[in-house]
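Help needed: design a sequence for this.
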């Protein structure tokens, strides 16, 4: 089912020329959609050379190429893109991800009810080196992908994952954008800015919710340098720190609601599954996966506790102004919007 009267803005943020070919592939995948986007917005994060190169090679009809006018980092770049967007639905795709041809069609078709504030899709890892048999699927979030424990059908979720997510425009008009002192800056592995935004959605509206549709599929490239025990440990520790910071902003209960289920159900099941497979087939990778699940939990917990127990925990949100909001009168599309976003579908 395709919803009528909903325009779509796709935002891709990029910060380095090292991923130029990945960026070109991401842009191409958006242009090849069965349901064309109203506009594609490419935001270059404080990199003049990449901006010039993009203007030369990627500019074209329906493509806006802008520089990040806000604070350096992924959150600032996303907010810059949101500020110039015109779509009823604002979609985000990572610069190192490629979308399936029906990606936008699947996302838009999921907005069947006006109470649906956002929709995310499945993110499948595209390993750039040999498949890491030791890497537990329960920790695919370490490389920004959908992990074991997420639903296999359209379901309500607490938060969406940044590489493949979308929101109604009113989300940013009402609760504001992404917090710019939370999340990635370059290769720094801090995150959770999407989680914090999604929690604000639930805290602001008691009748709205977010959905995950696994049929809206993108492939996220995972370079070989991220498939190592060192990166795994660093990313887990940083995730723990990020969770602690977010808990100061939105409260511990809301910030850790999904994590309790994940810790108490998904991870123990993963350990038992891996150990069982190891005993049955004698594959050392199965035992390694069980070990990495336990190590990942311990390291993430250590990052969380180290931040919470520090004498003066640094909360980046305390020194920031409220997340920027879209001024309705200035940013809404000029076309007639009656009936847009009502959830009526055919």
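Sure. Designed sequence:
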């Amino acid at each position: 089912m395709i919803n009528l009267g909903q325009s779509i803005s796709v935002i891709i943020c990029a910060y380095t020329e090292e991923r130029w070919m990945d960026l070109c592939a991401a842009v191409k995948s958006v242009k090849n959609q069965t349901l064309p986007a109203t506009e594609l917005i490419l935001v270059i994060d404080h990199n003049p050379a990449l901006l010039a190169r993009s203007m030369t090679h990627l500019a074209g009809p329906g493509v806006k190429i802008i520089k990040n006018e806000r604070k350096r980092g992924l959150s600032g770049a996303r907010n810059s893109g949101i500020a110039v967007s015109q779509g009823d639905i604002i979609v985000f795709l990572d610069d190192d991800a490629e979308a399936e041809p029906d990606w936008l069609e699947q996302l838009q078709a999921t907005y069947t009810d006006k109470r649906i504030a956002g929709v995310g899709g499945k993110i499948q890892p595209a390993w750039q080196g040999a498949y890491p048999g030791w890497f537990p699927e329960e920790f695919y979030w370490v490389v920004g992908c959908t992990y074991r424990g997420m639903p296999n059908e359209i379901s309500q979720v607490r938060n969406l994952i940044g590489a493949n997510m979308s929101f109604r425009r009113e989300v940013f008009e009402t609760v504001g954008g992404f917090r710019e002192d939370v999340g990635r800056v370059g290769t720094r592995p801090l995150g959770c800015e999407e989680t914090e935004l999604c929690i604000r959605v639930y805290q602001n509206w008691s009748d709205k919710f977010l959905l995950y549709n696994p049929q809206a599929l993108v492939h996220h490239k995972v370079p070989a340098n991220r498939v190592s025990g060192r990166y795994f440990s660093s990313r887990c520790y940083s995730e723990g720190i990020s969770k602690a910071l977010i808990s100061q902003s939105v409260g511990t209960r809301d910030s850790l609601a999904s994590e309790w289920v994940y810790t108490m159900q998904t991870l123990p099941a993963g350990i038992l599954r891996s150990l069982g497979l190891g005993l049955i087939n004698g594959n050392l990778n199965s035992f390694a996966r069980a070990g990495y699940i336990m190590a990942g939990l311990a390291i993430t917990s250590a990052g969380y506790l180290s931040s919470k127990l520090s004498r003066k925990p640094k909360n980046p949100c305390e020194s920031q102004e409220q997340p920027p909001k879209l001024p309705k009168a200035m940013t809404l599309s000029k076309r007639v919007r009656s009936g847009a976003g009502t959830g009526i579908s055919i």
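The longest strand covers residues 209-222.
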